Amino acid sequence: MTEETTTKERYSDADLAEFKKLIQNKIEKAQHQLELYEQSFKNGSANDTEDTAPTFKSFDDGSNTLSKEANSQLAIRQGKFIRDLKNALIRIENKTYGICRETGKLIRKERLLLVPHATLSIEAKNQQ
After folding, report:
1. Distances (CA, A) of 109 to 1, 35, 55, 70
2. Is residue 113 located within the same domain as residue 65?
3. CB 10 within 8 A of CB 98
4. Which of left, alpha, beta for 31 (phi over 0: left; psi -120 to 50: alpha)?
5. Range with the poorest average pLDDT among 46-55, 78-87, 93-102
6. pTM of the model
7. Containing domain of residue 122, as a range?
């Protein structure tokens, strides 16, 4: 191995602290949103069709089921997003955060501020 491949550029501790705070805020917001999705498809909420006339209820049943399925899918996506953010926190702790898993180069800070759980640089993403 050459010295170039064994020594990786990395973000400073100050940068990592900034990313960590950003990610923790995103996790907090994402968990709140996940709770809302889960409540809406588990509980059926108070905005159900229970208090409407039977003639209108039949029309609402289909949209209610569709809404629960959509919220279920949103909850699954939100759970994956939270998992990816938590994995980014682990990379911060390991001081490997922001290093492209394909090229080994530093991912641009602008990209990480927009997509803090990114593991690929734009160049590597475009090659996929």
Report:
1. 28, 30, 57, 34
2. no
3. yes
4. alpha
5. 46-55
6. 0.76
7. 98-128
